Amino acid sequence: MPSVSPAPVVLVTGAAKRLGREIALALAAGGWRVAVHYRSSEQDALKTVADCARLAGVAAHFCCDLEDEAAVHSLLPQVISHFGQIDAVVNNASVFEHDSAASFSFAALEKHMRSNTGAAILLAQALHAHVLARQATGADTGQTGRFAVVNLLDQKLWNQNPDFFSYTLSKAALEAANTMLAMALAPQLRVVGVAPGLTLTSHLLSEEKFKALHTLSPLGRSSNAADVAATVKFALENTSITGTTLLVDGGQHLMKFERDFSLM
After folding, report:
1. pLDDT tens, residue by residue, 153-193
2. Phi/psi class of residue 84: alpha, beta or left (left: φ > 0; alpha: ψ in -120 to 50)?
3. Dihedrals φ, ψ of 84, to 5°?
4. If we measure between CA atoms, which residue out of 50, 24, 44 comes closest to residue 35?
């Protein structure tokens, strides 16, 4: 009888809670074995792992500070050691701290660039090296395009305002890296961006304010977590998409907002 290929493995950064958790659960429901990355939310990560395992049969959690370059370099080897392989990375985790043109500092920029941009690039680099090694040993003879990196971006990049200055710069750099990585890492890897609109509320918005802002789009609603998770899954599994970004925002990028949603 022909051997059955093991289910693919995906690392989802920041998967302990909020949008990362929803992405992890959607991928597990689709048959992916999920490596749940977290930084400090261990109990939330364990819950996500348990829920993913119920859906896919297996999952695991991995702690890493994405601002620490040495720690980032060690993350994929840990995942590979546990699962025996890795097939995709979803760069979801982000630092999101407020600054402005007036309060901007090198320290704020470096913090955002390390976590939001540099870590995502290093993980793509490591996945590419892993795929090359698999191909060199003949361990992988599958369809071209099935290995992928998905970078979570932000509709702010297409609808800029001056708030969250360093965060926006870090996501703009990641969007540029999205294009360059798609060129540099082909044909082994595809690289796709997914840019949500206002998706989840936070401590910066009341529930009432969030609901009002969520309707500010041409479609009358922005993205929800299920929309974004489904798009990430689509990007991972459609083997012909690379070097582009899918905006999932109800069209919010077509409207002009003078301030960030959290400050409106």
Report:
1. 999 999 999 999 999 999 999 999 999 999 999 999 999 99
2. left
3. 90, -10
4. 24
